[in-house]
Design goal:
This protein is of the alpha/beta class. Helix content is 32%, strand content 23%. Strands 11-10-9-12-8-13-14-15-16-17-18 form an 11-stranded mixed β-sheet, with helices on both faces. Strands 19-20-24-21-22-23 form a 6-stranded mixed β-sheet, with helices on both faces. The chain has a 5-stranded mixed β-sheet with strand order 2-7-6-5-4. Strand 17 and strand 18 form a beta hairpin. Helix 3 packs parallel to helix 5, helix 12 packs parallel to helix 13 and helix 13 packs across helix 14.
């Protein structure tokens, strides 16, 4: 049991009805999980309003309700705490409940449109291989040193974050690398956390279904750097035009990395092959197994963070040369008939363009490049024609298909993609709604030495249609089809 007063420390409270001197068992924002002696925090979400479930929570034994709007009918055995923002209150309370665990380790946040997962995951691997105890909170997985846990969101809710940070603290973790999404920032999931540093990768078109305008999306990302303390560092990609905006109000010590501009950590690509990259970073050469200019940026950011955190060259370079691709990020294999398949999470116009330009910069142009791509349902519709235009322009053949349609009609999504295809590229596109059939068709069309890019889902092992998630793994499905065609 914990004292409610301690849990409410630094929460912006409007008023209190009842006794704050009580002891509580646990915190919940989902009424279905709330129980005896617990606190229920009523969150106003985009789909549901937790205030509608206050009575349900009370009937299950909750003794404290945190809310933005006081109910009309009050229960005299329950304490009601009215706050300005329930989401903010939840995050602050979660941090207090778990003993502010982010202060017990060095928490580094990575934000940007593309590259978050790669940078966070490879930093985890790098520092682990250097002998440190390390944590990871990412789109792909959560790691507490060597223990792996599944994750449902890029940035989990504040209770989950603090629970894992608390576990990391107990197990002596030195560093935790965490993806910080725009949704996570805007929904106050990282409120109350103490960051030792932040990394900005880049900013391009994404999530405008949620943020409405690019400037709002940018400013949400910027707010992460605004709140960094003077004891923290901020490392930003100087080649991105938004990098200066990120640092405008930041108190953190500022560093830059770049490929094209003057920077603290500057990289030059010496060789770019399907086997990897030969890079020159601050006059030191290193061979890495990752591919493409976008990964040159990622590696340079990783080098910068390692230097800032005290892992010096040449040890950091040696460790970087052993790093492998992150699952679903430019993950590739070559079939028995010499067909190269690349599976990538590219689900934004900029990410898709980066991957296709990388492939085109390496291939001889004697091969056919077949791209299988779709766009997710219930997400940013504005990027659909842009992604179709990029796929049709930069591929020999483009197959438009389903991604995760969710509640939308997949044929309608494909129609909205087709609007972006320029007249001269119509002959290059095929539309096949069934994603498995689309991948099969790509495998059937491919000849020896050709290249297949399956884009959009990357590491995901499911497809979501009308609220139902079915098993679906782009990598495995493509590999199986190519094996069958080889027989």
């Amino acid at each position: 049991m914990k004292d409610l007063k301690d849990i409410l420390y630094k929460v912006s409270i409007e008023s209190v009805v009842g006794n704050v001197g009580c002891s509580i068992a646990d915190l919940h924002y989902d009424s279905r999980n709330a129980g005896r002696n617990d606190v229920f925090i009523a969150i106003k979400g985009s789909a549901n309003d937790g205030h509608e479930f206050i009575n349900t929570a009370i009937s299950q034994g909750v003794i404290v309700v945190v809310c933005q709007d006081l109910p009309l009918e009050l229960v005299n055995t329950v304490t009601y705490v009215v706050v300005l923002n329930s989401s903010k209150a939840l995050a602050t309370m979660a941090s207090n409940y778990y003993g502010n665990p982010s202060k017990n380790l060095k928490l580094i946040g990575i934000t940007g449109t593309n590259g978050k997962t790669t940078v966070a995951s490879l930093l985890y691997e790098l520092f682990k291989n250097a002998g440190y105890k390390v944590g990871l909170i990412s789109t792909v997985k959560i790691m507490v040193d060597s223990k792996r846990y599944p994750t449902a969101r890029t940035t989990p809710d504040s209770l989950v974050i603090n629970a894992f940070l608390s576990q990391m603290s107990r197990e002596g973790v030195d560093f935790c690398f965490m993806e910080v999404s725009s949704h996570g920032i805007d929904q106050h999931r990282i409120e109350g956390l103490s960051f030792a540093g932040g990394v900005f990768t880049n900013l391009s078109h994404d999530h405008l279904d949620y943020h409405e305008t690019f400037s709002k999306y940018r400013d949400v990302k910027k707010s992460f750097f605004d709140r960094l303390p003077s004891t923290a560092f901020a490392l930003v990609n100087r080649d991105d035009k938004n990098s200066s905006v990120m640092l405008q109000n930041s108190k953190a010590k500022q560093y830059y990395y770049a490929l094209k501009s003057y920077a603290d950590f500057r990289c030059q690509i010496l060789e770019n092959q399907f086997r990897g990259l030969l890079l020159k970073i601050n006059n030191n050469e290193v061979w890495v197994k990752l591919i493409g200019s976008f990964n040159a940026y990622n590696i340079t950011a990783i080098y910068g963070v390692s230097e800032i955190l005290g892992l010096k060259c040449p040890e950091s370079l040696l460790l970087m040369s052993t790093l492998n691709n992150v699952n679903g990020r430019f993950e590739y294999f070559v079939s028995d008939t010499n067909i190269t398949t690349i599976v990538d999470y590219a689900h934004t116009p900029d990410a898709l363009k980066n991957v296709l330009e990388t492939i085109n910069s390496i291939r001889t142009k004697n091969e056919t490049l077949i791209t299988v791509v779709g766009c997710g349902g219930d997400r940013d519709k504005f990027k659909r024609p842009k992604m179709a235009q990029i796929a049709s322009e930069l591929s020999t053949k483009a197959i438009f298909t389903s991604d995760n349609p969710r509640s939308e009609n997949p044929d309608q999504i494909i129609s909205e993609m087709q609007v972006g295809v320029e007249a001269q590229n119509f002959r290059k596109i095929i539309s096949i709604t069934n994603r498995k059939q689309a991948i099969k068709t790509a495998c059937q069309l491919a000849e020896p030495n050709d290249i297949i890019l399956v884009a959009g889902k990357g590491h995901e092992t499911y497809q979501e249609v009308n609220g139902i998630k079915s098993e679906f793994d782009d990598y495995k499905i493509t590999e199986e089809f190519l094996k069958k065609l080889n027989k």
